[in-house]
User: Fold these one by one.
Assistant:
Number 1:
Amino acid sequence: MRLAGSARVRAMWLAASVAVTLAPHVNTLPTWLSGFAALMLLWLCWIVLHGLRLPPRWLMLVVVGGAVAGVLLTFHSPLGKDPGVALLTAFLALKLLETRAPRDGYVVVLLCYFMQLAQFFANQSIATAGLTLLGTVVTMATLITLNSERLGTTERLRLSGLMLAQAVPFMLVLFVLFPRVDKPLWGLPSDAFGGSTGLSDSMTPGSISDLTLSGAIAFRVRFDGFTPAAAQRYWRGPVMNDFDGRTWRVASARMLAKVPYQVSGPRTSYELTLEPHNRPWLFALEMPGGTPDNATLMSDYQLVSRTPVRNRLRYMLSAHTAVRPGRSEDAAILEAALQLPPDFNPRTRELAQSLRSENADGAALIAAALRHFSLSKFTYTLSPPLLGRDSVDEFLFDTRRGFCEHFASSFVFLMRAAGMPARVVTGYQGGEINPVDDYLEVRQSDAHAWAEVWVANQGWLRADPTATVAPSRVQGGLAMAVPEGEPLPLALRPAFSWVREIRYRLDAVNNGWNQWILGYNPQRQKELLERLGMQSPDWHTMTIAMSVLCGLIMLALAGWALAQRGRLDPLQRAWERLSQKLAPAGLARKAWEGPLDYAERVGLARPELAAAVREIARDYCGLRYGAGQPAAPDKAARQLVSRINRLHP
Amino acid sequence: MRLDELPAPVPAHIDTAGSATARQPLARRFSAWLFRDHGAEPTPIVLTQRRVFVLPTRAGLAFAGALAAMLIGAINYQLPLGFALTFLLAGLGHSAILHTFRNLARLEIEAGTAAPVFCGDPARFTLRLINCRSNARYALQLRSAGALARIDQIEPQASSLAEVLLPTQRRGWLGLPRVTLETRYPLGFIRAWSYLQPDMSVLVWPRPEPAPPPLPWGSGSAGGIAASAAGRDDFSGLRNYQPGDSPRHIAWKAAAGGGPLLTKHFSGMQAGNVVLRWDDLPPQMDSESRLSRLAAWVERANAGGIVWRLDLPGCSLGPGEGIGHRNACLNALALFGQPRESA
């Protein structure tokens, strides 16, 4: 079937819809599939531009088969979210080459809507929302094209914009009031979530420094009480107890029924909005005074959620920065915190023995070890040299260049070798207050590892060798601590303060977006509705409010749709006025009377008006029905109107 | 021709006019009430909102289904932007209802020309669609009894003509059946339609007999004009007899000799006056064939520039000539034997 002119316009609009819809998917789709879709689009454009035929059905079947086989080979299964999106992409691209009837056009547009929804699996940022909005406008314009070919491109876009503007009130009302549920309606495929960055349950040299290269937000905090100083802001995450000579791992821990330590001293409370990281642990300012809902405190004082954090999670916590937990610690836990792989790092063991013999008191031993770190010339760097088998030895005595995981790991090894129960704590340290919205932003670049040593009668003491080596790290953040020329994220570099300024603003906007749009969950919905004056909002009252508001919007829009009285144009009004002027003389125009006949009748009855009325009627006919419209119809119409107005019968 | 020469038409669908009687099933009465099916109405007809109906199309139902699926997806995968997109599209669906409705509402329909046609030719009803709004209207469709007319665009404060072509099968008045005016613009998800029945009729003339016998010169006795002229004409030849030829012109001598029945042909037939008389047609012809023949003769006489008179039982037209006389004769033939109209 050769494409006719109108079919070509339709095909181009459909192609534009598909292109706008698929563009945001390029990041997440397999590369070959993105290429395939682009190829199909180009093929269609080629067909349209050269006025060729659409490919025959058998060829399309072959290509469909190939695409499906490709998806199956890539994902090994047709089930699940990613293969589903991939198959949908392939079908959408192919359907484009198969749009023969108008019905096919609707199929393409509906598939586009599904794909626009699917892109939210990967990304729900403001930019994605903007792209989706653009996609909606283009698909609307495409639908308009399917229904009428008479409109120009701008008219199409303008009409879709108008319709979009009319749809926005609905969207707002439904978005705010549609009752939200916390849990999915049914089980999700196992690959529903994935690909988030964050701390892991193990630590090897380099794992945290890799993470710090990401400027992504880990979580945001709004303090209700005082804001602790940067050096006090240790956000506790996975606690690593098991060491195999190279890798630290999280050990299994008991769940505690309640907070095991006495809370006292300075207390602050805060609301933390955690970005999804697909792991169960939560982060808390040391030491938490309680547990959020659906989370428990483990015996290593780590907060763990019952389910992995797959959506942005908000929780309230209190923190007691001066508390030293574990004064009466389990013997088993202390035993586990002394385990070391045998036959590793002999030089460190030696150093530990000498420190032990010099310091009988635990606290003094810790201080001496830290002093050792500060006296030896250590360099805090994001790009430490690679280490061999005895990684702690090599680091402490040879390379002396490392990142926080090197310092924490070697310090804990040293302590354990000296007979002190110790463990590595990972998490985040510091964070930056965004001056725009006063939220504390903690980024992946704030990822940190420190040590915790148990001292009899004192409990677990935090010891951060990194702070000893590079005090500016814990006081001013990563950018202050690493030497110049290190590959920091752009916005962290001091020279780019304007980038920082922009980033603050963008982050504040993003935070607002996250808090109010993406974080709009049942709790927030309840909060907002209560603030808007709804008492005890439940799904029942929400549904009623939603229906009432939607009804009101519908009424308003229906009023707009109906407010189109049959208005006559000035020419027509003037022509009617002529008849009214002549009516007293019994010369009103009859409903069936044409202008020329009417003028004749008037001319016979009132010969003095004949010439004028005939001329008016002739010009009126010319303007209203004339095939050859005058060059300036508006001007001619105005002249005629004034001529009619001047006529005095 | 001028329309006012026509006799007034019988109101179309006289059987359905004012028909909501108690004998009808409830559903039909409801439908008649809902769709205002009250027979032909005078024009201009304004499509008030009471007359415009709106329902989703199949594409619209598919769109609604897609939205439902998207909403379930958004709930299940906890996608806030999924909710937003679904709700935005739902709002667009609602906006489409209004725009589709608005594309049709307050349109005015005026009856245009409805010229008479010969039976078998399509009857051409012209409707003028007047858009008094300051926005253009697009993609309207007009359907009536299987006929379809598309109106792509009506400019603001302008009008467009739409033609409905209906097949004709019987002579007499053909009323415009109920017209459905519909639109799916702008998105195609919604169909807005209105039923209307402008009071328009086309007079269907009898189909002229394809190969009629020659005009009956001087036959019959009435009026002296034709008879006096025909006798003096010169004999110009013979041709095969056709039913309806006057017995006076049959070549009886040739027939008596065993030959075929032949009719004598006179050259003066082209110039004189003719009387076309129903009663002179062979008695075995039924009335429709007679009307057909008379129509053919009227056409031939008119084409030849002849003065003719048409005598029908109970009415006589002419003598006269020209297009006006021809139309009057054809009108009379079309309405012959039909109930006298009341209007």
Note: Residues 222 and 438 of chain A are 7 Å apart (CA to CA).
Number 2:
Amino acid sequence: MELAFSPAEQAFRAEVRAFLDAELPDDLRDKVRHRRELQREDYLRWQRILHARGWIAGAWPKEHGGCEWSPAERHIFDEECHAADAPPLLPFGLQMVGPVIYTFGRPDQKEFFLPRLLSGEHWWCQGYSEPGSGSDLASLQTAAVRDGDDYIINGQKIWTSLAHHADWIFCLARTQKEGKHQEGISFLLIDMKTPGITVRPLVLMDQGHHVNEVFFENVRVPVANRIGEENKGWTYAKFLLGNERAGIAEVAWNKKLLQRLKEMAADTPASGERLLDDALFSRKVAETEIKLTALEYCNLRILAAMQEGSPPGGEASMLKLLGSEVTQSITELTVEALGYYAAPYEMADQTPGSNWTPVGPEAAEGVMGQHLFMRAITIAGGSSEVQKNIIAKMVLGL
Amino acid sequence: MDFNLSEEQQLLKDSVDRFVLDGYDFEKRRKHANTDDGFSRDNWKKFAELGWLAVGLPEEYGGFGGPIETMIVMEAIGRGLVTEPYLATVVLGSGLVAEAGTDAQKTEILGAVAEGNCMLAFGYAEPTSRFNLADVTTKAEKKGGGYVLNGHKSVVYGAPSADKIIVSARTSGGVRDRDGISLFIVDNNASGVSRRDYPTADGLRASEVMLENVEVGADAMLGAEGAALPVIEKVVDQGIAALCAEAVGCMEMLKDETNEYLKTRKQFGVPIGKFQVLQHRMVDCFIELEQSRSMTYMVTLKLDEDDTERRKAASSAKAQIGKGGVFIGAQSVQMHGGMGMTDELKISHYYKRLMQIDTMFGNRDWHLKQFAALTQ
């Protein structure tokens, strides 16, 4: 048993840190630090910088343009990126559809899609949830009906993150109505410019435009854009959901958020003392920090097991569950730390070129918006209740 | 980064696991717990033969292994709800001697403990100290070449069977001063030592230890005069790590038993584990166990770091284990229904032990407060 990373892993950490020092633009760091909404171009700029360095896809095999980093190296890279306030890498292409394409796609699909995905030329979004199919995803109704060399798609997707930025959408659609729900689904890659697709914004409680409804009305998609076999889409969808779960605990990001909460509470006066010295407040911070420490070591244990080749099973659900709860505790406490200054709130301050100047202390910026948006993380990607169902079934055999 | 056991550690684990599985079924445990001693002297001899009474102690005094080996033994002790006073004698008693003792003290005591010929106990708490290790009113006054001890040490686990009791006493300073505390090794049958022995709620044995003009020689002092608190804190943190491992053993046993019960107990025509409300509660228990195990590894591997890091590790782990242990204990009773209430089933016995583990060396509130102070 040994907690320390190996000398080679520590050298890798130093290399990542030096790269971030040199290459991460200050204005991007600043935006992340101030919890400002990142624009399409912000994500793409960072993606292009990493792509130029060859570090855009840590987990991918080298033959497809990845780094083949070990789980520990990926963990170190994530830690350093968050510590430096780097913009996050969106998961839809790099973690979700990319591995599906290189695992199940045809050679021509790999050749066309993978380089464009890595370079940022194609922005991907995920067409999974539907108005009637949330936790019960396999009940989805969006229909794909064969017509010669095309499918004709009709239906609606919902909660589609950043679809308004996307060039392509990977979609689950029903190609067969008979039999079990899971057996009639196909996995399709659809160009967002195809006639018949409408994207409509859904504004969330933080006033932000993160998610959308996507409508399909007689949308023609070449059969050639199907991944793998017809009616086998659920297999690929499950592979996607189970893939690359180690980062799901968001330990590094949570550590960063917690550090900033403590800095803020140390700067906040409360009846002549620091808020951080308030007995009840500091107790809540301590509880959260201990929960984060437990999560960190759960995550390291699972990483160590992955290094030895055992893929995470139901444990990944535990990491998602705990990580999202820790994030919510931290953002709740951050709002609490602000006291009255959590109230002034205008999403306009997120819009580029807006004249809005933040009210209150500098650290107040973006806090309420982040907290409100983070209510979504125990719902999205399999709600906490669904994660518990998975653990009960896969780990406990109930 | 590696959470695997070495080959030697795996052998030790196999050996303690086998002992608990084969030689320590619950009815045997109940029989031993109900004897006058509250444990089996034969088992203690066996522990000595197998080398377990030297685990975690310096090699030059016949010991072997370190915190990981102690964790392995303590986890098995938790699983079997073992009543032999291992924590009191080996982890705390020998731990204090190894940390602060003179060469002569180490040679004499560590050797005797390892052979199974000497049992120890550590009296640190007092009726008014609650969890503060520095809150010591027991007095040690110089007399002749030695000291005279007066005071009351409370709930000293393992004291009824101990040959020697190590006590903290104040040689100078005010009641809660960090400086001025010393440690003394007192023979249990020394003149002026009186005990009130009792069984504890978790099926072990403890005593109120009264010291009335107990005269000891200068060679009874363990470590430097007035400078014992850092030693006590360090060894108590080792005790916390060991206790965390014991708690994990208890929690794992409860999780396994309760999960099995959910699969076999039928109501409304189905196994009760088919009900989502119980599935989710069982998942909550599983997650508390995993968090507790992770924190146990963390504190075990950080015991040799500097004081601040070690204390942070110990307080965070203890806060988690206290919370998780009582949660799993109470939920296991609840999910077993009326049967969970009975003395017959082992469930309630594990619950009672986990409650005492939460309290021992400071409960979760105490450690949250310590952790907050260390991390602000």
Note: Chain B is about 50% helix and 15% strand.
